[in-house]
Amino acid sequence: MEQVQINQPDHVLLTGATGYIGGRLAPRLLDSGYFVRCLVRNPRKLSARPWAEHPRVDIIGGDAGDFKRLVESMRGCGAAYYLIHSMVSAGPEYRKHDRYLAGIFARAAREAGVGRIIYLGGLGETGEGLSEHLSSRREVEEELASGPVPVTVLRAAMIIGSGSASYEILRYLVERLPVITPPLAINTLQQPISVRNVLNYLIDCLRTPETIGKILDIGGPDVMSYREMMQVMAEAHGLGNRLIIPVPAISPRLAAWWIQLITPISHRIALPLSEGVRNQVICRNDDAVKLMPQELLNIRESIAAADVRISSNYIETAWSDAGVMPGDPDWSGGTNFTNVYQIDIDATPEEVYKEISCIGGEHGYYGADWLWALRGIMDQVIGGPGLRRGRKDSKHVAYGDAIDFWRVIEVEPAKRLVLRAEMALPGDADLEFDIIQGEGNPTPTRLVSTARFKPRGLAGLMYWFSVLPLHRFVFLKMLHGIKHAVESKPAPSVTRPESGDW
Fold this sequence. Notes:
It is a single chain. By secondary structure, the protein is α/β, with parallel strands linked by helices. The protein has 2 domains: 8-320, Rossmann fold; 325-488, START domain (Alpha-D-Glucose-1,6-Bisphosphate, Chain A, domain 4). Helix content is 35%, strand content 20%. The protein contains 14 helices and 19 strands. It has helices at 22-31, 67-74, 94-112, 132-144, 165-176, 195-204, 226-236, 252-262, 267-275, 287-291, 299-311, 349-356, 369-381, 457-488; strands at 8-15, 35-40, 57-61, 77-82, 116-122, 151-156, 159-160, 179-180, 189-190, 193-194, 215-218, 224-225, 243-244, 337-345, 402-403, 406-412, 416-421, 427-437, 445-455. The strands form 5 sheets. It has a 7-stranded parallel β-sheet with strand order 3-2-1-4-5-6-11, sandwiched between helices. The protein is globular and about 65 Å long. Mean pLDDT is 82; it is low at 325-335.
C-alpha cells in the first residue's frame, strides 16, 4: 500500500495484529472498508492469516519501542489502535515496559499527526486498591493521553470468546474440578462481555466522532460473581453444579500456580488475572451503549458462541498467539547435540505433511503418549506451559502457532516443519521434520526427524544425557505411528463454521 502524507480517516494503524483481539479486528476493519497498516515484530507471524494478502493491508516489520519506525508507520493514518500488552514477553517488568511503550506511542502519534488513538484497556474500580495489572492499564491510559492526540479508551472486563485466556481458565476449572477451592474474592462482581461485542465497539468508535477523547466502559448485560459464572459455565457444558468452597489462605500467586496445573494458561498470565479477582469490574457509565448501540450477548449466549467455534475446530485467534518469536536458531559455537531418526512411508510428501501437521494437542504424538503426558506435567510443575495449551486448529499449522509446549518457527508445506520448545529447559531445543521425496514413481517418501539441543551450562548437559535413553524409543515410536496413520487412512477435511463468536 502506498504511503500517504495527508492523514486519511479510512487509513488506520493496527498494533497487536498477531494477538487475540488484533488478529480478529484486522479482517473486520477490512470488511468495513478501511485500509489497515499492521506494525508487527515479525511479519511472518501473519503470513498464514487469510486476510494478510488483502489489497488494503500493509504489513510492516518493526518494534513498538522504535520511535522512528512508529512515526513512519503512522504517517497518513487517521487513527492508531494501541493493542499492545507485554505481560507475557516482558515478564515481571511488564508494568514498567508497558508504560514506556505507551509513552513512545503517544509521542510518535503527535509527530505523525495521527487524528486519534484507540486503546482497549481494563475495566475496574478507580483509586486505591487496584491490582497491579489494572493499575498498569490505567498507567498506559495516562501515557497515551499525555500528548495532544486525543485518546478513546474502551475499558472491558472478562472477554468471553473461543481462545481467550479468561474463557479458557473458566472452562477448564469447571470441566476438570467438580470441587473448586478459589480465593475468598470469588463473590466479587464482574460484567463480562462477548469478544463479538468488543470488536464491534472497536470498529464503531471509528465511525462515531462523539467517542473521541472519551473513556467508555464496555460490558455485557449480565453482572454476576465469579461463583455464578462458574455455575453458568457448568450448566452450559451439561455438567452438574460445582461445589465451590472459598479458601482464605489461597494467595494470588498460589492460585496462579494452581491455574497453570489445571488449565493451559501459564502462571505468568494467571498471576495478574488472579490478583485482579479482588477488584469489582462493572461499568460505571453507559456512554458506549448510547453512542454505539448494538445487540449485547449475555454470558450464556457468549459461551454458546465460543463453543460453536471450539466444536467446529475453527478458533480464529487464541491467547497463545501472542509473544516474541525466536529468530533463526543459532547452532554455531558452543556444544550442541542432535538425534536423527528416519523412516520411509508409502505416500506422497503432501500426505506425510498433512499427518505431521496434526501432531500434539488432542491428537497426541503418535505413540508413547503417557511419556509425553508425564513430560508435560513435569514442565507445568516447574513453571512451563506443559501440554495444556493444546492447539487452536487440530489439523493445520502456521508460523507462530502454539502446539502444547512447542512453537512453530518454520513451515514449508510438504517439505519441512520445525517446532521450538517453550518448555522450561536449561537450553534451546528444536524438533524438526524434513520430508524428502524419493526419485522415480512410485517411490516411498522419507520422513526425517531431528531433535536438536543447545545446552546452557552444566544443567543443560545433565538434562540432555538424562533424557537421551528415552529419545530412541519416543521418536521412533512417533515415526512409526505417523507411518501407520498415513498409510492406513487420509486425514478428513475441515470446514469453517457458519456461525460463532467472531
